[in-house]
Design goal:
The protein has helices at 3-35, 39-65, 69-92, 96-99, 102-119. By secondary structure, the chain is an all-alpha fold.
Amino acid sequence: MKSGEGVIFMLKCLLVSYVLTAGLLLLLALMLYRFGLKENIVNICIIAIYVIVTFLSGMMAGKRAGSRRFLWGLVMGVLYFVVLAAVSLAVNRSLQDVANNFVTVFLLCAGSGMLGGMVS
């Protein structure tokens, strides 16, 4: 895989990941509205969405890469987290909201992306 093709493929994977994230978060919002879910259940569902989406993007990257799949899955998980943190910082305008779960969300995204790469 050429480096230019690899970068474009990674960007496509990220785009698919965020479209899937948006769809799942909209579904969660509908369920919150419809069933009046508690805050702790919504937080668990948000984390589960991050894990599922990064796992799937790691699988996509691992299948395409062929060799060193775990590394490509890890890269996808980290890229997903970087974009997530950047958007969160842009919206919240402070590090405090992001810093509360920064390490946990990073480890979940990186780990599930790497696992997705290994499984592919």
